[in-house]
Amino acid sequence: MAFARIARTGLRRTGGTFGSYSCEGDVFLCEGSTNRRSPLPSLQNAKAGRDFSYISSIRKFNRMSMQSRGIRVTPQYQSATAERIVEESESEYDEPMYPGLEATKPGDKPRVVVLGTGWAACRFMKGLDTRIYDVVCISPRNHMVFTPLLASTCVGTLEFRSVAEPVNRIQSALATSPNSYFYMASCFGIDTDMHEVYCETFSNGGLPRDPYQFKVAYDKLVIAAGAEPLTFGINGVKEHAFFLREVNHAQEIRKKLLLNLMLSENPGISEEEKERLLHCVVIGGGPTGVEFSGELSDFIKRDVQDRYTHVKDYVKVTLIEASEILSSFDVGLRQYATNHLTKSGVSLMRGVVKEVHSKKIILSDETNVPYGLLVWSTGVGPSQFVKSLDLPKAPGGRIGIDEWLRVPSVEDVFALGDCAGFLENSGRPVLPALAQVAERQGKFLVKLLNKIGKKDGGKAFSATDIPLGDPFVYKHLGSMASVGRYKALVDLRQSKVHSLSTVVPVKFGAFMWPLALCLSYMQNPDCTTAISLTVLSSPLLVNFTLSSTDEIFGLSLAGCKRRISCWVC
């Protein structure tokens, strides 16, 4: 690192000025073709006499001889003690190679910095008026993941590209506008007084200096950094279990599943080892765990039976939950899911995981469960980045926000999605970590910022003559979960006054999400829905005609009528 520092500060030599001399005795210097003895002793002589008093003369000696030796002298050069070399090397390493983006100047468009590329961040960026704002997105992921269909990619029902959308397609200004950027980096700090975020590059060694740090100044900051899987501090979870939050998680699960299938056919594998390799264990009975278990069951019946006939009878799926699966759904739907998964060959087990080892998990009652593939889906919690921020915190460790999604006590900072929650004194309920919530918050905030920007509202709505409008209110449009074998559950309970719970065994394919939209909008007072049932022997064809002025998940229904047909088994 010291050599890199010398190279950067300009210490260099001209060619052909150094001779090649032995350093057995005292040090020799070269001036053209004339040799002269240095007044400094050699290292061996100095060590022998324990005399290091000559060090103080280095500066004077260097000043006299550097020019004649072809070396350009660094201004204000000081004694080169070991402590100083280390100190300078470390300080210059910490100095960012690229200073990043400085604060905007008067007359420039305000800069909105968005941390994250999840549902909230992408919905916000999609609607942001880039005629008013410049946008900078910072995230270690350059795409948005359609998480509801992520489980299907693990077994090949869908390709990975089908659930990933590049952010520059969601907001084209990131690729086309001269002052809008996407930075593949992780944010590790925020200075709310200086209006700056501090980032570290994210790559796999492709940069000349990896990683390095930089800063980005902001006028408005939107924190939508998401959440991390909850492990509850259980030993071995992070080391041995797979999560299902990203596309690369699904790729690793698929790779591990296929590898175990192939290894189990090798000669010399015992019966016990085959059973372990082909035992897929899912921890967590929420929508993600249930959907993944259903997809695995379909994969076993559809593909394993045909392609791995030698080991097809060894493949098992076990779903472990502390209480009851799909606890947020109606009791009738939970019972339907339980019966359906059991008929599909999924073993349901109640228990609490105590420890996770490389080949087995230990439950709280000391039951040992061997496994070949372990998928962990027990919910999400605040990330280490969110925990480290010196910002108001809501219950559960999320970033505290008010009714307009602002972070109190700081200017120009907003928080959305899984990383944000209403402050306890706001009287608002704790919202679930759902894509539906995040998408709605992103839509609300972008409308607010666009309105403020058009009216020149200045910093953080500080202009008192601009009304903020109604605060954010979340209305649940329903929940949905697939359970395998082309069946899905839809829970449309809206309130205690008017509730509707429906078991919809849908043959979904490409029509699953249009049906979810239809059923959700049935309860929306802003939407007029006409439903007609036509019996075509079996199955039924259900026709939905929608007319709305709203949009959800990026599907615009404004000013038009759409007729959507879904097959119902």
Automatic annotation (TrEMBL):
Membrane topology: Peripheral membrane protein
Subcellular location as annotated: Mitochondrion inner membrane; Peroxisome
Organism: Populus euphratica (Euphrates poplar)
SUPFAM superfamilies: FAD/NAD(P)-binding domain
One GO CC term, this protein: peroxisome
Pfam families, alphabetized: Pyr_redox_2 (PF07992)
FAD/NAD(P)-binding domain location: 111-442
Keyword DNA repair: no
InterPro entries found in the cross-reference section: FAD/NAD-bd_sf, FAD/NAD-binding_dom, NDH-2
Signal peptide region: none
Protein name: Internal alternative NAD(P)H-ubiquinone oxidoreductase A1, mitochondrial-like isoform X1
Protein keywords: FAD, Flavoprotein, Membrane, Mitochondrion, Mitochondrion inner membrane, NAD, Oxidoreductase, Peroxisome
Chief location category: mitochondrion
Assigned protein family: Belongs to the NADH dehydrogenase family.
GO molecular function, one term: NADH dehydrogenase activity
Catalytic activity: a ubiquinone + NADH + H(+) = a ubiquinol + NAD(+)
